[in-house]
User: Fold these one by one.
Assistant:
Number 1:
Amino acid sequence: SPWSQEPQRHALLKPASKRPFNAEPPIGLLAEQFYTPNELFYVRNHLPVPVISPEDYELEIDGGGGGVGGKEQTLTLEGIKALPKHSVTAAIMCGGNRRSEMTKVKAVKGLSWGAGAVGNAKWSGARLCDVLKQQGVQPDEAKHVIFEGADLDPTSHPYGASIPLSKALDPRGDVILAYEMNDEPLSRDHGYPIRVIVPGTVGARNVKWLTRIVVADQESDSHWQQNDYKGFSPSTDWDTVDFGKSEAIQAMPVTSAICTPQPGSRVKVDDDEGHITVRGYAWSGGGRKIVRVDLTNDEGLSWHVAELEQEDIPDGRHYGWSLWTARLPISEAQRKAGDVEIWAKAVDSAYNVQPEKFEHIWNLRGVLANAYHKVKVKIV
Ligand code: MTE
Ligand code: MO
């Protein structure tokens, strides 16, 4: 069976599906550490995890131009490690993160992710721009860079995705061929021995078990680039949908989530004035920094600005997430009533802000689910 060599997983990862393995950590743990521990980092596999021995590993690079002019090259794991090492802090988020909230409006097709299909890590490896430049790839000679993984579907097609060539060649794009996650070798679930990290870009393009890179005029023809991970109007249904007419998701929209307290939990006011403490994460794609996170517990009559914990990195290259903490006052009336609903919304450096409701961003695949995060708790 193709599933006989799956790796061991941490008991706290809650599977959304077991074969292929897809799981997220309890989100209460997510905001505890700026760098998500590797064994608690969500896993999103579409296929069985391939078995790759480091000695046999090869990365094929086709720099375009049909192989003329010496534009094909093969790198070994040692060869990649011999290139200058670069590190970047980047959050990876699945395009379907928080889908379980969107599906409450109306059913969507996809794994029922909570808000834990995201993690933040320090990734280290060789820069893709160095590899492509060494290969003689010019910015104007093609439009896309295609990635293929070693995981094959039943018809022997590999998992694949592509990104714009401009992102791949930009040194500030920080795209890397990563062999380390938080200073440890990549684990099998996260792409051992090499995965591409495309900071600021939807998880699906961060191809694991990378075996091939192709510079091309067209996007990847894989199912996951062409017929999945795309957004649509709330009015588009399965009878009318045309995947060819929509853009593949690259940069993700601004989002946030409340990690503690958990929905339905009993929360104690923590001082005489009656405050509660709320913690969570916020992130935006495209390297846009989070500039503010606003919280309300009275449906937007009053807002409270959270304190941010984030890397000191220039905007445009701010690929890591921000953790935040807010103290919210609980009124006498709310204390008596016992029920409070907390809402969070993040603002990025382009002043993009999350939409209030899922109704207006609903889409049949349940991707880009970035409406306000709302959590109901009991005050005790
Ligand atoms: N790469 C390969 N080869 N196969 C996959 O199934 N899943 C993608 C991406 N890269 C996938 C892949 C998706 S949809 C996501 S969200 C991220 O990997 C998840 O990365 P993680 O499992 O390391 O968290
Ligand atoms: Mo994903």
Number 2:
Amino acid sequence: MMNDTFMQVTNPRYRPHFHVTASAGWINDPNGFVYFKGYYHIFYQYHPYSAEWGPMHWGHARSLDLVHWESLPIALTPEKPIAKNGIFSGSAIVKDDKLYLMYTGHHFGESGHDDDFYEDQNIAISEDGIHFKKYENNPVISMPPSDNTANFRDPKVWQQGDMYYVILGGQTKAEKVGRVLLYASKDLLNWTYEGAIAQADTADQEGYMWECPDIFSLEGQDVLLMSPQGIQPNHEKYLNLHQTGYMIGKLDVDTAQFERNAFVEIDHGHDFYASQTMLAPDGRRLMFGWMAMWESIMPEQADGWAGALTFPRELTIKDNHIYMNPVAELDQLRINGSKKAVPFTPNATEQLVLSEADSHEVQLQLKTDEDYTLKFMAENDAVLTLHYDHQANKLTIARSDRPDQRVGYVKSAAVMTLQLLIDRSSVEFFINDGETVFTERYYSEIHPNVVLDKINFADVQATTYELEKN
Ligand code: FRU
């Protein structure tokens, strides 16, 4: 029997203060990130009836400034019987002053097996950005091309000239590898299949299914961002169950081809997946990700909720590399007068950077001529550790609740900058102005102290801010 009452949070110990999350229940991917009638909107995969994944709804929040979010009623509810249907991921676009959502309908078959399903693509429309009406002639794309399996989801729609295009994540029937399908439309309601614009070389190297594809141009280069499932770990790469990353290339919508470079992971932490971008009115390319990973341990489930979105990020590109930084509006969360320079004693080996990390930002500047270790200490337990190996330019994240570490590299430079956004049970590390990013959850009943181990503190600089809890 399905429980039909909404979940309640029973314990706030891990609840974020300024990250988007649901009032209770389960969330995963960000969906429908868009700007409409003065507000940024973000939707998310949502199961309000338990803290586990279940029949997907679209939860909804909006913001005037990207940092203060107002929770809105559920935007999309699955068809009945809801146990057999789900509103899977998708995107949003504004047309004729109306907000269009394009989403995947996920339909389980009679057998009850997880792999007995089909997927189609649908539209819902809103005039006020709060109430949505499903289009009466749904689905607008009823089935995948004949050489594709039933994995056919996560539409990302955009306008180019007087045409609309959508890409979808797919899987070839023959080789069972991930790929991206392109459709075109004049009105968002009638779609024609244009072809598969890109495809994985092999399932092991590039994934058996490409989820949540997104395509956009960044300073003249086209970028395909997506979340391939099942790339096999390779030395220090692809260590999460599934990956999120990008391929830089050139999209030609007329020939339905994306000429591309190799796949590169975009975030090196344990907890990042299924990202989605939007073009802000001021031209910035902004992104949200799901701040978790399938099958991760999520201790907050015991408290009636699971999952949050990352802090919104701005993407930029330099030398074929994508940089991610928190949006500049972060400044509005910094509490006036809370800025503190951390004093360091030159000859100490261990120094407290921030006590009782809860809702904080830490900015550090360190010379890279020796190793350092940054630890989140809950009494004697280092719940989270970032270690820098200066000879290899290598950063490693370890967590006390997981055996598996995560690794990222930085280009060699004399000085390294770190920006940490800490929010009760998460921390996002932006290193060297977004060159390398780690997104991490951590679980501690007490607010941990952030401690730096180093040999020479003479030239370390650190500043902390308290961030608004909203
Ligand atoms: C990615 C994903 C999507 C799907 C959604 C279902 O995390 O698997 O492909 O639409 O989650 O919740």
